[in-house]
Amino acid sequence: MVRKFNELNQLNEAAAELFIQTASDAIARQGHFTVALTGGSSPLGLYQLLATPPYRERVQWKQVYVFWGDERWVPLDDERSNARMAFETLLEHVPVPEEQIFPMWAEGISPDEFAREYEQSLRLHLHPDGRFDLILLGMGGDGHTASWFPHTAVLHERNKWVVGYYLEPQEMHRITLTVPVINRARHIAVIAYGQNKADALYEVLEGQRNVEQYPAQLISPTDGQVVWFVDDAAAAKI
Ligand SMILES: O=C(O)[C@H](O)[C@@H](O)[C@H](O)[C@H](O)COP(=O)(O)O
Known about the structure:
The chain is an alpha/beta fold. It has a single domain (2-231), classed as 3-Layer(aba) Sandwich (Rossmann fold), CATH 3.40.50.1360. It has helices at 8-30, 44-50, 82-89, 111-125, 179-183, 198-206; strands spanning 2-5, 33-37, 64-68, 70-72, 134-138, 162-167, 172-177, 187-192, 225-231. The protein has a six-stranded parallel sheet. A three-stranded antiparallel sheet has the order 4-7-6. Residues 38-42, 70, 72, 82, 138-140, 144-146 line the site of 6-phosphogluconic acid. Belongs to the glucosamine/galactosamine-6-phosphate isomerase family. 6-phosphogluconolactonase subfamily.
């Protein structure tokens, strides 16, 4: 489903409502809520909203387990860190117990080993069905999402839950959830706004199937729901 908004604050409010609803449904059903956060700049307004009354009081933060959909393999204090951004805008302002927050970063371990360990944590915390309650995603102007970049091998990974790999053009490693894990989620929310997303949004939602070029076409939940939160500028061509 595509939800289109004139104003960015309306988009963020609607995304916050989805977050609150999926959290309260999950907590009522199973006692806790598992969410994967996204990086980039797109979720900034949503995180700020969730950290502020009256939204903040509507989530039972002590029952929330926080993971990430993808990360740049940099220390937590690096300005490129997706986790750092989420801590500053959201996690430092809400009472999620520290041991329930799982940044995609650790010292003294390779990205590959880390990916295996992260998969083990997911297997433990997403037990028994391996499903996230909610995964937040953004989309780049080139049609990538999470760290599924065009023409990378991770697009074809069907067994591993988490992959760490070197992304040549950015000269850094990336850690990312894989296609099967993301598509197993109960809910996926993709946030894409601004004119520079218009071409990719058109190609991803209405263009010919070409997942190598537009990896966000791979977002296709098997038994869940996806909502695209877009603004008029991003939606100019759809
Ligand atoms: O670490 C990252 O870069 C991401 O998680 C990535 O997939 C992001 O969501 C898109 O690149 C959109 O980025 P913007 O929100 O900054 O446009």
